Amino acid sequence: MRTIGLLGGMSWESTAEYYRIVNESVRERLGGLHSARCVVYSVDFAEVERLQTEGRWEEAGALLADAARSLEAAGAEVVVLCTNTMHKVADAITDAVSVPLLHLADATAAAVRAQGLRRVGLLGTAFTMEQSFYRDRLAGHGLVVDVPGPQARASVHRVIYDELCLGVVTDASRELYRQVIAELVARGTEGIVLGCTEIELLVGPADSPVPVFPTARLHAEVAVDFALA
């Protein structure tokens, strides 16, 4: 079994889900008392969030590159960046280590295509929904990507940072997300990408009339595929 390096803390709420999913998945596949061989590097999200807000992406990339090097030094044979938004600096991480970085958008796109879908709605932080780094990666797999309108994007972003990253899950926000999903579906969306690793703490398949793609779970399961290959 290869050792998985989890680069997390953005936020730790979803990183804990990654840790749970990779261990449950290994146990399901191997049975008995098996669990995942993994190392975790958890950054201070407040520092990263400040760099995001100030547009200091190069510095954020350098910070995560240093963390990835620490994971490799600790024995990681693959790096899993446990956040969608910070895949904006994925190239800086890839360049910093000699082990593979499993790109979250690639794992998500593969799951979408496996269901025969092409047009997806993307929910995530404002950075993920509005900037091109993530949408273009999905489009590179032949997907058409829809995002909510400006007001809905602001609401989705607010819930992520003001609630989910702090462990707050409310029925009101769940209903808000359901409405945003319904609006995307009304525009012709065939599936919904939960493109922030915290979103699946709030909504799931029962909240959408079309398939949903929980990116943290998909990413963690691809990491286990790699570890056990």
Q: Could you please describe the fold and organization of this structure?
A:
GO terms for molecular function: amino-acid racemase activity. It comes from Streptacidiphilus fuscans. Pfam families: Asp_Glu_race. This is Aspartate/glutamate racemase family protein. With 229 residues, the protein is of the alpha/beta class. The protein contains 10 helices and 7 strands. The strands form 2 sheets. Strands 5-4-6-7 form a 4-stranded parallel beta sheet, sandwiched between helices. Strands 2-1-3 form a 3-stranded parallel beta sheet, with helices on both faces. Helix 5 packs across helix 10 and helix 8 (150-162) runs antiparallel to helix 9. The longest helix is centred in the first third of the chain and has 19 residues, at 12-30. It is globular. The mean pLDDT is 97.
Q: Which whole number gives the mean pLDDT?
A: 97
Low-confidence stretches: none
Helix percent reads 40-55%
Q: Into which percentage range does the β-strand content fall? A: 5-15%
Write down the overall geometry.
globular
* Overall number of strands: 7
Q: Structural class of the helices, strands and pairings? A: alpha/beta
Per DSSP, the total helix count is: 10
Distance from first to last alpha carbon: 8 Å
Compressed to H and E, one letter per element, the order equals EHEHHEHHEHHEHHEEH
Q: What is the CA-atom radius of gyration, in angstroms?
A: 17 Å
Strand order, largest beta sheet: 5-4-6-7
Largest sheet: 4 strands, parallel
